[in-house]
Amino acid sequence: MTNPTTLTMIRPDDWHLHLRDGEGLKAVVKDTARQFSRAIVMPNLAQPVTTVSMALAYRDRILQALQMDGKSVVEFTPLMTLYLTDNTTAQDVRDAVNCEHVYAFKLYPAGATTNSDSGVTDLFGRCAPALEAMEKLGMPLLVHGEVTDPDVDVFDREAVFIDRVMLKLRQQFPELKVVFEHLTTKNGVDYVREAPGPIAGTLTPQHLLYNRNAIFQGGLQPHWFCLPVLKREVHRQALLDAATSDSPRFFLGTDSAPHAQHLKEASCGCAGCYSALHALELYATAFEQAGRLDRLEAFASLRGPAFYGLPVNTTKVTLTRSSYTVPQTVPFGDDSLIPLAAGTTLNWTFSEG
Ligand code: DOR
Ligand code: ZN
């Protein structure tokens, strides 16, 4: 596959997505539905989605927001997740398993990121019965893999998480299906590649395309700030190697996380990059850089369904080699959003079928 001018592939899924709620949800959900067939929807709303009934109500709002956009609801399937807390019980896990629309629990260590105040403080104590039930019933645990200890350097939080939490988690619950979300380090991909048992990792476009210099290029660049934060070039290279390898354990998860422009361009700016608008163009750019466009379909459309035990999509999408300039800004309710890499020109343009 040297220099193809078009790339037709099975329609992809996004295995890690933030859709928000209310007017924000209405503004962004159509972008994901344009490129992806399904998405694993993160539960970190202002009021976290902790129960099946909350997840079902949120799912209805997502489908409603799409209908209002004139798009048929059957074309996009939100795969709901529940927010793990210290109060999650084994019964909560059984309820989730019995609900056809809930696909996973999400672990946010308390204080790790946006809306994580209700996150877990006692994983191996209070959460143990829930984890045991997940392991037994095959319910995946999606992990924000960063320690929150203020003494740990922000760039080391993922690596330290492996040593302090992930190893113990997987030793105590060896059959628990784990997704190590938004991997950002060589330590992370090395761990996921080699670890025994059912484990996979998602990779975002920003971590495949940029290193931490992007945050400081010519001044402080809030639109390149996300958590886990971008890392050194050696880590970016390791992530790109993993994404474009033939390991079935690495697949697409944009972590597209919209925040209004004024909340990012602020004295204490929010973490998150908006990539739902142009996710596939961004991933294609990264894969082409690695000379591995031939692996994009496996990464975007095959390995995720295999891990989650879901069918592969039956429709196709096309990427065409033609210039696409990322808009400077897109509407977000009464506010605006600055997409990742706003104003830059990419070599690929997405189209249906
Ligand atoms: O940058 C991030 N933004 N990382 C997360 O883990 C959460 C997300 C958000 O919800 O804004
Ligand atoms: Zn996320």
What features would you describe in this structure?
The model has no long low-confidence stretch (mean pLDDT 96). It is built from 11 helices and 13 strands. The protein starts with 5 loop residues before the first strand and ends with a strand. It has helices spanning 22-35, 52-68, 90-97, 128-137, 157-172, 186-194, 205-209, 233-243, 261-264, 279-289, 296-308; strands at residues 6-10, 14-17, 38-41, 77-83, 102-107, 141-143, 178-180, 199-203, 250-252, 316-325, 330-332, 335-337, 345-352. The strands form 3 sheets. It has an 8-stranded parallel β-sheet. It has 353 residues and is of the alpha/beta class. α6 (186-194) links the parallel β7 (178-180) and β8. It has one domain: TIM Barrel (Alpha-Beta Barrel). Helices cover 33% and strands 18% of the residues. α1 (22-35) crosses α2, α3 packs parallel to α4 and α6 (186-194) packs parallel to α8 (233-243). It binds (4S)-2,6-dioxohexahydropyrimidine-4-carboxylic acid and zinc ion. The site of zinc ion has 5 residues, from loops.
SSE topology:
Layout: E1 6-10, E2 14-17, H1 22-35, E3 38-41, H2 52-68, E4 77-83, H3 90-97, E5 102-107, H4 128-137, E6 141-143, H5 157-172, E7 178-180, H6 186-194, E8 199-203, H7 205-209, H8 233-243, E9 250-252, H9 261-264, H10 279-289, H11 296-308, E10 316-325, E11 330-332, E12 335-337, E13 345-352
Parallel strand pairs: 2-3, 3-4, 4-5, 5-6, 6-7, 7-8, 8-9
Antiparallel strand pairs: 1-10, 10-13, 11-12
Helix pairs in contact: 1-2, 3-4, 6-8
(4S)-2,6-dioxohexahydropyrimidine-4-carboxylic acid binds at residues 18, 44, 113-114, 144, 226-227, 257, 271-272.
